[in-house]
Amino acid sequence: MELILATTLNPFSTETRCTATKLKICRSRPTAAATSCWQGLNAFSSSKTGLWVLSGRWIAAPGCVIKCSVFSSESSSFSTSQSASLREIPGSYGLPVFGPLKDRLDFFWFQGENQFYKARMDKYESTVFRVNFPPFPPGFPYSRGVALLDQKSYGVLYDTSKVQKEDMFTGSFAPSKDFTGGYRMLAALDPSHEKHTILKSMLFELLKVNRTRTIFEFSKAFAETFDAVERQISQGKQVDFYSSTQKFVLDFLIRTIVHRDPAKPGHASLANDGPSLFQTWIGVQYGGIAQSGLPHIVEEFALHNFPLPFFLVKGMYGRIYKFFRTYATEAIAVASSKFGLDREEATHNLIFILGVNAWLGLIRLFPAIIYHVANGGSELQGRLRAEVRSSASSTRAGLTAEAIASMPLIRSTVLEVLRLSAPAKYQYARAKTDLIIESHDAAYMIKKGELLGGCLHFASRDPAVFDDPETFVADRFMGEKGKKLLPNLLWSNGYNHQPATAVNKQCGGKDLVEHISCLFLAELFTRYDSFQIAEPASIYSYPPRIKFTSMQKKGRFIA
Ligand code: HEM
Ligand SMILES: CC/C=C\C[C@@H](/C=C/C=C\CCCCCCCC(=O)O)OO
């Protein structure tokens, strides 16, 4: 008997309680027009109430309609009618060697990453399709999988009861552990792994014990950065903000968590080499998918062909490690004494959390904030300025956490940037078992072990969810209407209305990111009335092209 799986009535729970009005067990394949439905293999009914409890999956003929009121295990009730339609996953991996090679040329040369997925979504008329993901051959293993480009199918990536996340940080290719002291990092651990819970709890503790430093260190690094920006502008220069952001963010993160200025003289000092040391260590480690800023042909042959060996950056990483091992004594002591972590493992994880998880995300986010706010022109900048100055003055204590929390337009603007320009564009996972995923208009069967890859550029622009999805709307996340959209904001590898925890894979810095991004805008409009950037600007190129040309300080024009 061919098993036809239609849909899991309530994909958010493994048990669906359903008072079904129309259920029949079919012993043979129903006719195409049949309205009879096959029920889940594990279904049973309670004769008293006629309540059908389905654990597992419905089995229904295509076109079958199951009408029932469904009580999810979250005890919310809703009425639904499921028109079960199971679709073959469209798309192709192409011929061996030639298929992935063609996709590599499309992805890195002829189409670019966004058009690569858009072209296939249009061709297959589906937001779910088979594709070769990067990195590509010859030196990287085949990365065949299923792309998820809509809000509905994306959720499976977060359901670690259905998917596994070990070594999924960047998809099918995981760099050698040589780059991280021989350890698998937190971000590469499945949440079922005990070490995942320990390391994530360590991070939460470090953020908690250092929370009183956050605003001070951020504001200090902000002031240093924009003093330098103003100096350069007054010399008639345009200021590349992506470049100045790198030192700004690294100084903030390391001063806050390590309690040491990276450039402070000392035998283990990073001097002013921090950004370049981290960029090189990361770029070599993730070369297969890296954007390096090197000439394209050089990047293709030097980085995208084969995984590069750790020895190329051993000396650089050695400097980073020595700095953390020498100066991050309090953080390492917390990891060791409170969480029983080996000091070596804690140090390598601390480097990765601050250098990859935190730094790499923030140095992409802040330029994106500047880009979108600059494009909002004087109208948006005027509204943001008014909100910041009225909130800060009302607390009289300046930019406190309470003042920041009372700036709804600032927060909505940050969330809208995170929607349109999510710095971590891709999330990957592998199916733990055969499972059903659903897009807005069909259900698909995923076989155990298959790679799933979500692309936020499209899921965050899902027209089924967002009005005017391509447009930057600073107010989008304000008020009750904006609150209802939070579950559709996916930048942190989870739903924005839900917290990161030690047992899920949601970004461990989620709250910090939103807080300091609001603080960034608040500092900006406390210090300046407005600012301008050079045209053409771009955040989709690498490096992002965001150059300050002029700033208007309170009553003073800097140009
Ligand atoms: C704009 C900045 C950031 C963005 C866009 C971002 C986004 C993400 C995403 C998408 C993931 C999931 C990766 C995956 O498993 O597929 C993640 C994981 C993680 N992030 Fe962030 N993040 C940012 C900043 C930070 C900061 C500031 C910290 C720490 C202070 C941080 C710590 C982590 C950690 C530890 C993980 C791994 C979580 C786990 O495996 O359970 N991130 N982040
Ligand atoms: C781009 C990093 C954004 C946020 C950091 C976040 C999650 C990241 C997930 C994958 C990024 C993998 C690193 C890719 C490096 C590419 C090298 C380059 O192009 O510079 O964790 O918080």
Main attributes of the structure:
5-stranded antiparallel β-sheet; binds protoporphyrin IX containing FE; binds the ligand CC/C=C\C[C@@H](/C=C/C=C\CCCCCCCC(=O)O)OO; 5-stranded mixed β-sheet; 559 residues; alpha+beta
Hetero ligands? protoporphyrin IX containing FE, the ligand CC/C=C\C[C@@H](/C=C/C=C\CCCCCCCC(=O)O)OO
Q: State Rg.
A: 25 Å
By DSSP (H or I, 4+ residues per run), the number of helices equals 17
Helix/strand/pairing class, anyone?
Answer: alpha+beta
Strand order of the largest sheet: 3-4-1-6-7
Gap from first CA to last CA = 76 Å
The fraction of residues assigned to DSSP E strands is 5-15%
Shape: globular
- Average pLDDT, rounded to a whole number, is 87
Q: Stretches where pLDDT falls below 50 for ≥5 residues?
A: 1-84
Task: Please estimate the helix content.
Answer: 40-55%
Main pleated-sheet profile: 5 strands, antiparallel
What is the β-strand count? 18
Oligomer: single chain
